[in-house]
Specification:
By secondary structure, this protein is an alpha/beta fold. The chain has three domains: 25-92 and 191-351, TIM Barrel (Alpha-Beta Barrel); 95-180, M1 Pyruvate Kinase, Domain 3, CATH 2.40.33.10; 398-514, Pyruvate kinase, C-terminal domain (Pyruvate Kinase, Chain: A, domain 1, 3-Layer(aba) Sandwich), CATH 3.40.1380. It is 36% helix and 20% strand. It contains 16 helices and 22 strands. The protein has helices at residues 40-49, 63-80, 134-137, 193-205, 218-230, 244-248, 250-256, 264-270, 276-289, 312-324, 333-336, 341-372, 398-413, 427-433, 448-454, 471-485; strands at 28-32, 53-57, 85-89, 95-96, 104-107, 112-116, 126-127, 143-146, 151-158, 162-169, 171-174, 178-180, 209-212, 236-241, 259-263, 294-297, 328-331, 418-422, 441-445, 460-464, 493-498, 509-514. Strands 1-2-3-13-14-15-16-17 form an eight-stranded parallel beta barrel, surrounded by nine helices. It has a seven-stranded mixed beta sheet with strand order 4-12-8-9-10-6-7, with helices on one face. A five-stranded mixed beta sheet has the order 20-19-18-21-22, with helices on both faces. Helix 2 (63-80) links the parallel strand 2 and strand 3 (85-89). It is elongated and about 75 Å long.
Amino acid sequence: MQKPYSPRLQPAIVQLLGEPIAQIARTKIVATIGPACREESDLRGLVEAGVDVFRLNMAHGSVSEHQESLDRIRRVSNALARPVGVLVDLAGPKIRLGELPNGAVECRMGGEIRFIRGTQTDRPEEFVTSYSALIDELSVGDSVMLVDGTVSLVVEERTADWARCRVVQPGLVRSRQGVNLPGVKLSAAAMSQADWQHAEWAASAGADFVSLSFVRSAVEVKLLKELLRTRGSLARVVAKIEKREALDNLEDIVEAADVVMVARGDLGVEIDVASMPMVQKRIIRVCQRYQKPVIVATQMLDSMQHSRRPTRAETTDVANAILDGADACMLSGETAIGKHPRLVVEMMRRIASATEEQYVEDRTAYVNNQLSQGRTPSTHSVQDFLPAPDFLVEGLHPITQAVVDGASRIAADLNAKLFVVASRSGVTAIARSKRRGAVPTIGISDNPATLQQMTLYWGVTPLAAVASTDINGLLEQVTAWGLREGKLARGDRILLVAGIGFGTGGHNMALVHEV
């Protein structure tokens, strides 16, 4: 287990940013690449609109197609001189229907459907699936959910060769659509042979993140980590929470993972959909305790696949995920196959900016009100917006965490314009990111892989630096960038967190610099 962490609370007045917060989105945007945005010009437009990380969905397309997309992302990143992350999403043991007669079958209320062995059938009342052990692992009374839970069946009889089901929620089912079995414990391995091959490709291609679908235990996460490390990859492993077993083992999985994804599509079918909002909050809280970045995914702005505007419920959903503490929000079909990929990214950025602006204002008003009455704000350290973690993220020195917390207070007291974290691995940037804070954070590194991983950390702007052990040299680079980009003016203050003997041991220095 990681070491417990419980810092002393220190009151300070939270300061607002010196520039309009509405122009900045600290919540990161993950966008899925698909036919609607695969061209290099499209990818460039999405990065300019606000995308921080691109997702390559290995459930669709060939490795050669994904390699081409990755190459395009790197070219766009270089052309814009802006780090962009790449997330390779392994398909996992997803069960899918086989080919149906005429491509679709209408499941009528009370009708019967039989799952049979094999790979094909020409009878509309018989279904085949990609999972050969399905019939062996079903029991009478089990639920079978199709089309993301919109069509529901119940197993009424099972033999050695088929399982007969009754339709209890009707609807149209198409070939190759997903099959969910809530509460059924499957014997399928977390990674298929194809997943292993895709993970090896991700390692060789230099992916920044690799996500594991349908995680059930921490052991599965550790196996993927080991595979990547033995292939020389430093990619962060993302554990997708979308099974009931994952909720049962949530803390162990979060501790083992580098990043967590609330994958609401399959999770919302595996559990009672009415409980989904509170389960999302629970997962985010556990990630905060373990200091792990967390992505909220699926149907965030789903109506914008066709519409130019989201629904009011969707904008509220995105805002609530941010208020819950999500580090990133993910777009799936909205950018992969939707009609308005750039519009949807711009909309998500607008929602994030507006939410964060009000969040900072409300938090500041609360702190000032408490202090004006001679009270210490009761929730947590007031220079930060989220409570302290219970455990330090792997690789983070306790001294570093203490310095980051102290520097956050100084930055707030001095109304600093930038909070700069110098880091080779990026874990110091995570320590700053997971406490939030109003002062914009710059993550500076001479390691391209670290910069690309920082693209997922809330509120952190990655900035490439020339390798140097000279603190003054780092400050000069940040100052030159800030003046050039209009982030700094003469007389502004910068708070730098670094280590004496940069890159060795904990970050043990906080330095205030006036431009």
